[in-house]
Design a protein that fits this description.
The protein has 439 residues and is of the alpha/beta class. The protein folds into 3 domains: 9-126, 3-Layer(aba) Sandwich (Rossmann fold), CATH 3.40.50.12160; 147-377, tm_1862 like domain (pyruvate-formate lyase- activating enzyme, Alpha-Beta Horseshoe); 381-437, OB fold (Dihydrolipoamide Acetyltransferase, E2P). It contains 13 helices and 19 strands. The protein has helices at 19-36, 59-75, 87-92, 95-99, 115-118, 165-169, 177-188, 218-226, 246-254, 271-276, 283-296, 315-328, 355-376, and strands at residues 9-15, 38-40, 49-54, 81-86, 105-108, 124-126, 147-151, 153-154, 173-174, 194-198, 233-237, 261-263, 301-308, 332-337, 384-392, 398-401, 407-410, 420-427, 433-437. Strand 16 and strand 17 (407-410) form a beta hairpin. Helix 12 runs parallel beside helix 13 (355-376). The longest helix is centred in the last third of the chain and has 22 residues, at 355-376. The radius of gyration is 22 Å and the shape is globular. The protein binds S-adenosyl-L-homocysteine (SAH) and FE3-S4 cluster. Residues 57-58, 162-163, 165, 200-201, 238, 240, 265, 267, 305, 307, 336, 338-339, 341 line the site of S-adenosyl-L-homocysteine.
Length: 439
């Protein structure tokens, strides 16, 4: 007797790197579930398919990949397949299978919609960075039922001399506005209230579509997303400082659904180094944009990325970064030591900074940021904020964020999840604030 039941297989997926990778993983999970009946597992040893969705922005995670692959190979179930996806897949390609012959397929960051194809071709390597995924249908898997990541563009059209991303994700193409709005409507119908728009340079949206689509810029896209009634909160990452025109800043400041939080990657506070990085703006332009933002929205929360010890960074250049950080007092700062990456212009620069100096600069910058945070957090005490609850923490608390991105946790039942409540801060901390629900 035959059975009509489809056998479910188990998928283990590890996601490294940025929010875009999180969304790419969601996309692959949905494809594998829909077309191949895979279901997620958190245990790699019971999986039929193990996927690592990789990041290649810095060198460290690339080294980690091969040691991790070795561990998966030892622990995996007999017959289970291993796939390497994402940015490191794009830039190393078949070298991954040469170094780790037990890997079954390699799938680049711009080819993830081909996951169910490569799955059945042993040793397949799909890494074409000219592949156009901008009109590929969105799929139904979301890590969080409360917040939806939505891609608005793929690739990047810049050529920052330190960055490998244009070589792993290819040229920038915007996703047609009607597809984005349809997706927003689809996710809010499932109860999602927060929309998180993703792109390498979100405010460059609309410059290039793959076909004859209506030309809509990022400011207009924000308006249209906010017009979807059930949308309560809109966030996005990352805008490029170069494209922060007045119209965009004014819309950001005046549209009540857009959260008062912006991640604006600075990279360096020295105009000389910004030029070497080919970022396209000066220290003065960056400071001018911050001033405009804060004039319109004094409470805005601003985070940034900074690279220390880019080749040629002198003590004076670093001082300029420090001076800018002291002036702006970012709400959050992600800082990295420069890491030379293959296929980038800066890869062969010979004026590198001594590694000990680089480490000392990173430590100095991080200590300064800790001081800024320690100065700011006590001011949260006894204040009341609207918090959208979205996670059950391992310590049993329920956590959520304010519109400005402050992470708050409260004691309470899981019924709080997916709701917005007024919360009073009762205890402050560097990473998370504790509060109590007032209403
Ligand atoms: N699109 C974003 C950046 C994406 S990469 C932008 O506009 O800047 C994420 C962050 O990684 C960057 O902001 C940068 O600070 C860091 N990064 C990128 N390449 C790096 C490198 N070679 N070494 C160290 N940090 C790097
Ligand atoms: Fe990288 Fe610069 Fe694009 S940092 S992602 S090349 S904007």
């Amino acid at each position: 007797m035959s059975t009509s039941l489809v056998e479910t297989k188990k998928l283990f997926i590890e996601t490294l790197g940025c929010a875009m990778n999180v969304r790419d993983s969601e996309h692959m999970i949905a494809e594998l579930n829909e077309k191949e009946s895979y279901e997620l597992t958190e245990k790699s040893e019971e999986a039929d398919l193990i996927i690592i969705n990789t990041c290649s922005v810095r060198e460290k995670p690339v080294h980690k990949l091969f040691s991790e692959l070795g561990v998966f190979k030892k622990k995996k179930k007999e017959g289970a397949k291993i796939g390497v996806c994402g940015c490191t897949a794009s830039h190393l390609g078949k070298e991954i299978i040469q170094r780790a012959p037990y890997v079954n397929f390699v799938l680049g960051a711009r080819n993830i919609s081909k996951i169910t194809e490569v799955l059945h071709k042993d040793k397949a390597v799909e890494i074409d960075i000219n592949y156009d995924e901008s009109e590929f249908a969105f799929k139904d898997f979301r890590t969080s039922p409360y917040k939806a990541y939505i891609n608005i563009s793929i690739g990047c059209d810049k050529a920052c001399t330190f960055c490998i991303v244009p070589k792993t994700r290819g040229d920038e193409i915007s996703i047609p506005t009607d597809l984005i709005i349809n997706e927003v409507k689809r996710v809010v119908a499932t109860g999602v209230k927060e929309i998180f728009l993703l792109g390498q340079n979100v405010n460059n949206y609309g410059r290039r579509f793959s076909d004859n689509h209506e030309k809509v810029n990022f400011t207009e896209l924000l308006r249209r997303v906010s017009e979807v009634e059930e949308v309560e909160r809109i966030r996005f990452t990352s805008p490029h400082p170069l494209h922060m025109d007045d119209e965009f800043i004014e819309e950001f400041a005046s549209n009540d659904k857009i959260c008062n939080q912006m991640h604006i990657p600075l990279q360096s506070g020295s105009t000389k180094i910004l030029k070497e990085m080919k970022r396209g703006y000066s220290r003065e332009w960056f400071l001018n944009r911050i001033e405009k933002l804060r004039d319109l929205l004094p409470e805005v929360s601003i985070s940034t990325d900074i690279i220390v010890a880019f080749p040629g960074e002198s003590d004076e250049d670093f001082e300029e970064t420090i001076d800018l950080v002291r002036q702006v007092k970012f709400n959050q700062l992600f800082s990295f030591k420069y890491s030379a990456r293959p296929h980038t212009e800066a890869e062969n620069y010979t004026n590198t900074v001594d590694p000990e100096v680089a480490s000392a600069r990173l430590t100095f910058l991080q200590n300064l940021q800790d001081e800024i945070i320690d100065e700011r957090t006590p001011t949260y005490l006894d204040k009341t904020y609207d918090v959208y609850f979205e996670a059950l923490r391992s310590d049993g608390y329920i956590s959520g964020r304010t519109a400005t991105g402050i992470l708050l946790k409260v004691k309470g039942s899981e019924e709080l999840l997916g709701t917005t409540k007024a919360v009073k801060v009762i205890k402050t901390g560097r990473a998370v604030q504790e509060g109590e629900v007032l209403t």
